Amino acid sequence: IPLLFSHAVYICQQTFSNVLFSISHSIPLLLITLVITVLLIGLIALGIQVTKTRNYLKKNLGKKTLIPYSLVTIAEEFDLKEKLDVVKDKNKFSFCYGLLKPRILLSTGLLKTLTNEELKAVLLHESYHVQNRDPLKIILGRTASKMFFFIPILKDIQNFYTFSKEIAADKLVIQNGYKQPLI
After folding, report:
1. What 3-state DSSP class applies to 161?
2. Which of 178, 93, 164, 92 is nearest to 132 (CA)?
3. Do 130 and 92 contact (CB within 8 A), yes or no?
4. Which of 26, 46, 103, 138 has the least C-beta neighbours within 10 A?
5. Residues paired with 84 in a beta bridge
6. Which residues of 145-176 are buried (b: 16+ CB within 10 A; e: fewer)?
7. Is the model's pTM score more than 0.85?
């Protein structure tokens, strides 16, 4: 029995050593595979997001129209004349787009409903996003949160960052005396 027991312990030790040896040699390959997989997920997520955005913009920029003179004078006030696009659309929207050269897109539906003071508040808000290159930062944050999907807090951080950029843009509007038009 003692001899049988010692043989069993010896066999267990040898098996355990062999398993550890094979795992320790496959760890670098496993890490490289994991890193490549995460990078591929990131590239795919970025590609999908850029494609969706591009298709949306292509659809909207196809309805591009002349910028009304009243808007041109307000845009010049904020040095945005060359960074502004207007599209003919009954829906009310404005947003900043463009990764390397950010621009502002406004709809005619929005322009028809805003007073000059409200329009100034909207342009000032969007100018914050242009100056800080927020579209690029936000898309990179989204890509990182999708790339590292196994770290759930990154999605929360990305959402908080996006929300904080909107708050900062509104704060700029308020600091420049457009609190009431912003409301």
Report:
1. helix
2. 164
3. no
4. 26
5. 104
6. bbbeeeeeebbeebeeeeeebeeebbebbeee
7. no
